[in-house]
Records
---
Amino acid sequence: MPTCRNCGKEWSWKQSFKKMFTLDTAMECPYCDRKQYLTTKARKRNSLLPFLAPLIMLLSILFDIPPSITLGMLLVTFLFIMGFSPLLMELSNEEEPLW
Ligand SMILES: [Zn+2]
């Protein structure tokens, strides 16, 4: 779970999950209201997750997996990503450059 770099309190899964959907790069800490940003490392990791979907589709073509199963796999992967994203979050007090 992500820990606030300002007050050191750990965000709950639910709090982190809600913060993921803010369009702004800054996420306010629910405890101290200081703005927190995702670290470059965490952002890069998150940007790789959407590539899992085309990978599954490619596998289903290669191994001739029926579309209904492929759809099920995509759904499971989607839920998996949603569930695990908050766990992979890492916070920083400042917005780090991407590269
Ligand atoms: Zn805080």
---
Amino acid sequence: MPDQRTISVLGLGAMGRALAMTALHGGHRVRVWNRTGGKDIELVAAGADRAATPADAAADADLVIACLLDHASVQAVLEPIAATLSHTALVDLTSTTPEEARQLADWARGHDIAHLDGGIMAVPDMIGGPAAAILYSGDAGTFATARPVLDLFGSAEYLGADPGLAAAHDFALLAAMYAMFAGFAQGAAMLRSAGVSATDFAERAVPWLTAMTRSLPGQALLVDSGDYRTDVQNLHFNKAALDAIVRSAREAETTADVLRPVKALVDEQVADGHGELAFARIVEGLRP
Ligand SMILES: NC(=O)c1ccc[n+]([C@@H]2O[C@H](COP(=O)([O-])OP(=O)(O)OC[C@H]3O[C@@H](n4cnc5c(N)ncnc54)[C@H](OP(=O)(O)O)[C@@H]3O)[C@@H](O)[C@H]2O)c1
């Protein structure tokens, strides 16, 4: 293989294993390390080299990929091997906050380590498939050099030199996802008391939510312009709708815990005199 590289994967949870296996299938030499033994059996059987320590895994690697639980575990694993990592390229695919990514980038710079942060927009089963996307930010040179490997994992997009950008996008997307999942749970709880299964609800929720996502670009225009004037479904309308949905939750003998913060944001806008404006104005209530 003309461009075979030595890839070190630190952390063999579900995601680290998927990344390591994908790199192996891509024809690279893969060295793997995990804190607890036994997670590398399939990888070693498929041709990966087991490393006894993080330093052994990282030594002379072309690319070191960290995929650990959180920022604290990244620090715990990487800090003792700073000298080994010096002059190598490090891609941190652990989910961290933007500030944590910037801290790691500063630490890496201080040890002559080229650092790229990544936010994985996929679950392990998706890695290596067409639906996986990974967002990157930090050292542009590392992104360019590592690209043939990164492209194996999923579509790779470079967002900019600020190391926190990938994490900021990652967590914004996850915030939207969790709010949607919680909304599904709220609806499922309300329908359960009417004897409707969550399975039936999901069948209706998928096309409904898919259709509703088409309004997001229009809402984004309002947010970006700061001009929230609207001819349709203003905040007065949404307040009446949310009040009725909360009453409906009560009738169904469920709490409205998922809806309450949304209703509070809408109520606040209406109380502040913005009832004629669009729902998207609640974003102003999320400012510090
Ligand atoms: N799974 C997903 O769907 C998904 C999607 C997007 C992003 N991610 C991100 O990818 C990262 C890994 O996720 P995962 O699904 O692989 O998680 P996981 O299965 O829970 O694995 C966590 C890994 O971190 C290691 N670890 C935890 N604390 C450690 C410490 N103090 N020192 C050394 N190693 C430590 C674990 O080692 P042990 O085996 O020894 O415990 C394990 O290898 C996370 O940041 C996650 O948010 C995951």
---
Amino acid sequence: MDQAKGLRQIARTDALARRKATMASPTKTFPRVIAVTSGKGGVGKTNIVGNLAVAMSRKGKRVVIIDADVGLANIDIVFNLRPEYNIRHVVSSEKSLDQVMIKTHHGIGIIPGGSGFADLTQLNEGEKLTLLSEFETLADKADIIFVDTGAGISSNVLYFNAASDECLVVATTEPTSITDAYALMKVMSQKYGSRHFKLLVNMADSEKDAKRVYAALSNALDKFLKNVVLEYTGYIPFDRQLQRAVQKRGLLLDEFPDSMASKAVESVACALLRDGDKNRADGNLTFFMNRVFQAAR
Ligand SMILES: Nc1ncnc2c1ncn2[C@@H]1O[C@H](COP(=O)(O)OP(=O)(O)OP(=O)(O)O)[C@@H](O)[C@H]1O
Ligand SMILES: [Mg+2]
């Protein structure tokens, strides 16, 4: 083992010990982990995560984004960043999480997943411990952690959804997006006992259209998955300004702050923050990564 690795391991043990001490303190708060997910791909998750993160960081929140999309990871593209390292380097103890995390000019921390989260079932105990303790170090650095999970019902998406405090499902008004959102919630409830989801409708023409998507999904849940509750979080209108921002390699909130979609993102961010700790699980980040590993068994 090289010296840097050895020092990191010592620091890790120290961090865990410190953590145990702070966990005893009743005033300690832990970051809130929000998974942003969808049944169908291309519904706007990554742009939503990026812009919600900006909106929340402007409100003084310390935000970290975990790119857990092992397919085409692209939160870095939304922020126009070129990450040199990713979670794979953390798993192999070559880098600490801090060294892998990139800070945007907004102050948002981005953790590129790369292929590092690709097959969590293959990690050995040492690698799991490394990830657990590295994630612990985030506890004092973030108020909100967004997990961009990628689309669909592949194992990885499910692990991160199951482990997060909240699961924000993004759907559009397209029938396939609605049926895929339903399929995702069904699998989550059957496999992991998930009982609570939040819905964000993207690319809707109006609030009325968005509410229709919500009604269709909650009716289906009432009928077939009685214990599952879906909460309406809001909607973001279809807005060409968002596409223009993407083309400019910028973020909607930076490029077109007065656009309709920007206003909508801001009000969704406010709604989420208002929601506060209502749906929190028992929260610290060891629990979060542990839940990921449990789901990945
Ligand atoms: N509100 C919106 N109005 C107009 N276009 C939008 C809106 N939201 C997203 N888009 C378009 O959809 C594209 C895909 O968005 P994004 O990459 O965020 O989706 P995704 O759900 O993360 O996709 P994937 O499932 O591949 O990860 C954007 O590049 C943009 O062109
Ligand atoms: Mg994406």
